[in-house]
Amino acid sequence: MVQLRRAQWIPVGVIVLAVVIDLATPTDVTSAPLLMAAPVASAPLLPLPGIIAIGALSMAVHAVLAWVDGTFGWKQGVSNQLTLLAVTVLAVLINRTLEGQSARTRRARHVAAVAQAAVLPRPPSRLGDLRIAARYIPAEDEAMIGGDLYVVQETPHGVRVMVGDVRGKGLGAVSAVCADLGAFRFAADQAEDLPRLVTALEGALLREGGRRGGQEEDEGFTTALVAEFTADLDAVRIVNRGHPPPILLDAQGAATVLEPSQEAPPLGMAALGTWPFPVDTFPFPPGSTLLCYTDGVTEARDEAGVFYDAAVRLPRLLRHRSLVGDPPAPAQILQLLIEDVGRHTGGRVQDDQALLALHRPAPEATAVLRRPRV
Fold first, then answer.
1. For residue 282, what are the β-bridge partners?
2. Which DSSP string do the residues of 59-118 spell out, in sequence order?
3. CA 179 to chain CA centroid, nearest Å
4. What is the 3-state secondary structure (H, E, C) of 18-30?
């Protein structure tokens, strides 16, 4: 915003430069061509009244300079004035065209945002004592819906979570995301344990592929992380199907990568064979945060091709954050992570990023939250 405000002074600076050049050069040298650049420069920077004002100011400045130089004749006076008028009209037309394109882009973003909210609704910020935050960063600003997904659901078997990444792009990936989310929301309530839940997800993907006439091998699977918290939140059970392992941050901000005890292929590959997939149980003590994300984070690279390592970089950020204020909330942790990935890549979002943070407050924080207001 500050840079835009500064840029809006560029047309005025062009006019001032034209005045300086005209006064510093012989009378037979005109700065009219530079003055003509001022309205054109204002086309993408100023609203319609501002463009007209810059055009009128350019014409007035040219008239005064030509009168001072004694060159306000037909060739160097009136003709330049007509040219400045034509350039101002051209700048107005350019501005209207850019404004129309900007309006269409805003409408497209709005439609994409509504569609994303329908396909991938943001989870609740709180389920019992569990605090939740989610973010979705698209690789392209205009394409707010991709193949990454997250879902958090309170079930009779505890809070269950899935973070996934559908292989492929476009409408096919969005269709698979819808199938994954629909299957999870139904099976999460019905399945008594994680193996049955994962099996139900596998079957849903295969059925979806059959309805679409079969999926191509490179677009027919979903990497997925399925987790389940115990009722007392003392532990989290995880099934990892080819997905980047999550990170467990303790109350002091130290990070532990929760690697699976056995590698398992992504969902949707049952037609190629069957593989065992273990259910790994990890402690989830008070003050801990479970951080899940897709490979848009783990595969983010800097200019030297070095991959981003959240387990190394995030604790440093949290230690610095703890020195300047209270421990960050889940949403703040995600924001720190997103900003740090941006710094690592030089601002280039190379792939969609779906991020989910689930935090178990320390006992004293829970007591404060539950304390009734007087």
1. 236
2. HHHHHHHHHHHT--SIIIIIHHHHHHHHHHHHHHHHHHHHHHHHHHHHHHHHHHHHHHHH
3. 23
4. HHHHHHHCCCCCC
The widest CA-to-CA distance across the chain, in whole angstroms, is 93
Question: Cα separation of 349 and 79, whole Å?
Answer: 50
Query: What pLDDT is attached to residue 297?
Result: 92
Strand 255-257 and strand 222-229: pairing? unpaired
Q: Which residue did the predictor score with more confidence, 315 or 2?
A: 315
What is the rounded distance in angstroms from the CA atom of residue 56 to the CA atom of residue 363?
68
Sign of CA dihedral 374, 370, 362, 310: negative
With b for 16 or more beta-carbon neighbours within 10 A and e for fewer, the 62-90 pattern comes to bbebbeebebbeeebbeebbebbeebbee
Q: What is the value of pTM for the model shown?
A: 0.69
Cα gap 240→220, rounded to integer Å: 17
Which tens digits make up the pLDDT trace of 91-120? 999 989 888 888 877 776 666 556 566 667
User: Cβ–Cβ contacts within 10 Å for residue 198, how many?
Assistant: 22
**Nearest-angstrom CA–CA distance, 26 and 24:** 7
CA neighbor of 328 nearest in space, from 160, 84, 337, 52? 337
Q: What would you report as the CA-atom Rg of the chain, rounded to the nearest whole angstrom?
A: 29
Give the Cα separation of 90 and 269 in Å (integer). 59
**Model pLDDT for residues 185-229, shown as the tens digit of each residue:** 999 999 999 999 998 888 877 776 666 555 444 455 889 999 999
Alpha helices in the chain (DSSP H): 2-7, 10-24, 32-42, 48-69, 79-119, 170-190, 194-211, 295-298, 310-324, 330-345, 363-370
DSSP class of 218: G
Phi and psi at residue 344, in whole multiples of 5°?
Answer: -65, -40
Residues 6+ apart with CB under 8 A from 327: 251, 253, 318, 321
| Cα separation, 226 vs 158, whole angstroms | 13
The alpha carbon of residue 112 and the mean position of all alpha carbons in its chain are separated, in whole angstroms, by: 13
In angstroms, the CA 180 to CA 166 distance is: 9
**DSSP E strand boundaries for 205-270:** 222-229, 235-241, 247-249, 255-257
